[in-house]
UniProtKB/TrEMBL annotation:
It is an enzyme of class 4 (lyase). The gene is lysA. Belongs to the Orn/Lys/Arg decarboxylase class-II family. LysA subfamily. This is Diaminopimelate decarboxylase. It comes from Dyadobacter sandarakinus. Pfam families: Orn_Arg_deC_N, Orn_DAP_Arg_deC. It catalyses: meso-2,6-diaminopimelate + H(+) = L-lysine + CO2. Residues 35-277 form the Orn/DAP/Arg decarboxylase 2 N-terminal domain. Pyridoxal 5'-phosphate binds at residues 229, 367. The modification N6-(pyridoxal phosphate)lysine is found at residue 59.
Length: 409
């Protein structure tokens, strides 16, 4: 199922994108609630033959309205910090519906999360030892295994290869089992997360096999958690993860494993991008069009402070000229207003861009706002959710006061 943002889409649920910037200002993050619902349904369909649960990796987008929407459609939560846990609970989640997947955090953060009722994904042997000493067999946990498989859109977002910092290497299984036995730790699940932007089924199957093989050594499991990482379409024509094929193949292996294990387990996924990326748009206004001898530059009223993916990963975000869709095509470098080389797109063909035109960056729903900053003392944008054909402000634009709030004279 190919769920992409339409290249020609200049409106969401009948609401014109350019009008949204008139109403709420620019730059502006906009999310289409229907897209999120469709993505959730697509994943449910792909894994309908097994007991599958989604734990939305909310680092992708922590807006409370998005979390509430997820909750209302039966999606649970994966968090990576006390802050995300708090936001999740504010959105109405019970702690028991939240998995805490830390990465080398101070142990007191784990203690607080566990005491609140969240389930932790233990990611190191020292943490496992501490967990045993602190909680013995009184609290359940999952263990995050590093399967030593390299997959993902680029090296920065691969998290399961041998050199990655994440999880406990599967090669240390004997030591894991020793600590579990010593403290009678209640390991109810095994977890792994391979990386982000993974298109092919092969790495997902490879890590599933490794995790299921490892699971044979743990008699009291209730859950196998395969993480997130499904690829979405950033570029027109991008191939994406074939969810139907992946669903069939993983479910088949999972069912065979449950039969052998003698118990029906739950299969968890932690998608971030897959659920929210395509729902989001970053709308910006063109500040200056500069016809330089070397290049045509389009400057916009945004930059790496609002959408850092192109600069950080060389990520492609499709751009629409909302104000002049039928203009003659010209080639531009689309750049920001930050005092750094913040290039959103190089040599990009766009309908002629004029000063004041509204541009839309697609696929801005995941790792857009959550990775934004106040660099150059710039305020973060407002956020709007479109649902039932209505646009609602779900985060106000920051003010200078917000920026100064923590500074002391
Ligand atoms: N589970 C764990 C433990 C993770 O670390 C992540 C993402 C996910 C699930 C969700 O992965 P997703 O389905 O979104 O691919 N900022 C980067 C992506 C980094 C993802 C970090 N961990 C980007 O914008 O491409």
């Amino acid at each position: 199922m190919q769920l992409t943002q339409e290249e020609t889409s200049h409106s969401i649920q009948g609401i014109d994108l350019a009008e949204l910037t008139e109403q709420f200002g620019s730059p502006l993050y906009v999310y289409d609630a229907d897209v999120i619902r469709r993505k959730v349904t697509a994943l449910q369909h792909a894994f309908s033959s097994v007991d599958m649960k989604m734990k939305y990796a909310c680092k992708a987008n922590t807006n409370l309205s998005i979390l509430r929407l997820m909750r209302s459609i039966g999606v649970e939560l994966d968090v990576v910090s006390p802050g995300e846990l708090e936001i999740g609970m504010l959105a109405g989640y019970e702690a028991g519906q939240i998995t805490f997947t830390p990465s080398g955090v101070p142990f007191y953060e784990v203690q607080e999360a566990v005491e609140k009722g969240a389930i932790v994904n233990v990611d190191s042997l020292p943490l496992l030892e501490w967990f045993g000493q602190t909680f013995g067999n009184t609290k359940p946990c999952l263990i995050r295994i590093k399967p030593n498989v390299a997959a993902g859109g680029n090296i920065k977002i691969m998290t399961a290869h041998a050199d990655s910092k994440f999880g406990i290497s599967v090669l240390l299984l004997d030591q894991i089992l020793e600590v579990v036995k010593k403290y009678k730790i209640r390991v109810i699940g095994l977890h792994q997360h391979t990386g982000s932007d993974i298109k092919d089924a092969a790495p997902f199957l490879q890590v599933a096999d490794i995790l299921l093989d490892t699971a044979r050594h743990f008699p009291d499991l209730e859950v196998i958690d395969l993480g997130g990482g499904f690829k979405v379409s950033y570029k027109p024509g991008d191939e994406i993860t074939d969810m139907k094929l992946l669903g069939n193949k993983i479910s088949e292996r999972f069912q065979a494993f449950c039969k052998e294990y003698g118990r029906d387990l739950q299969l968890w996924f932690e998608p971030g991008k897959f659920l929210v990326s395509e729902s989001g748009y970053l709308l910006v206004k063109t500040t200056v069009v500069k016809e330089d001898p070397a290049r045509n530059f389009v400057h916009v009223d945004s930059g790496l402070n609002h959408l850092i993916r192109p600069m950080m990963y060389g990520a492609y975000h499709h751009i629409l000229n909302i104000s002049n869709p039928a203009g003659a095509l010209k080639t531009y470098n689309v750049v920001g207003y930050i005092c750094e080389t913040d290039t959103f797109a190089s040599d990009r063909e766009l309908p002629e861009v004029r000063q004041g035109d509204v541009l839309a960056f697609l696929n801005a729903g995941a790792y857009g706002f959550t990775m934004s900053s106040n660099y150059n003392a710039r305020q973060r944008p407002a956020e709007v959710m479109i649902d039932n054909g209505e646009a609602k402000l779900i985060r106000r634009r920051e003010t200078m006061e917000d920026l100064l709030r923590t500074q002391l004279d």
